[in-house]
Fold FMN dependent NADH:quinone oxidoreductase.
Amino acid sequence: MTQLLHVDSSVLGPNSVSRQVSAAVVARLREVTPGLVVTYRDVATTPLSHLSGAHVAIAHGAPVEDPAVKADVAAGQAVLEEFLRADIVVIGAPMYNFSIPSQLKAWIDRILVPGKTFKYGPQGPEGLAGAKRVIVAVSRGGSYGQAPMTALEHLETYLRGVFGFIGITAPEFIAADGIMAGPEQRAQALANALQTAGDLAA
């Protein structure tokens, strides 16, 4: 059976464009992928802690003494295992202040793990997660296709870099842009993104 991991990160709940598009992506993949098994994680409503000195020490072999840190390390391990199991990863990623939500960054910090999703060899870093398909539903308040705004686009560029580092060199992006430009632009951007999601191939 094909395993799909669906991650949402918008803080806007049902008003979120990225959530609507990521849900449409998953619905489409359910249609075209027999036996699809979906795991859902909402990092906005159930956020992970940001990395701390304790996390770094534990990664280098220090004992886990604080019960809260121990629980958080276990949560991080669960996140990593979800990601490793997944054949397909669908992410809802709104742009906040030119980049990804901090909650999504905390999730990424738990899946970029040496020896699990990448390793360093004689030729430098090598990604270990290249067999996965990643689809990212992006929502952005403005449009970033032309200068000077292109210099402020740190969402898609960052995620392409992150996934490329772990071996996923062709992530797919479905973007709803300019959603803060007015209700008509928002509606059109959402409709276009939903159409693209509905046309996805298996």
User: Anything to note?
Assistant: The domain at 3-198 is CATH 3.40.50.360 (Rossmann fold). The chain has one domain: 3-198.
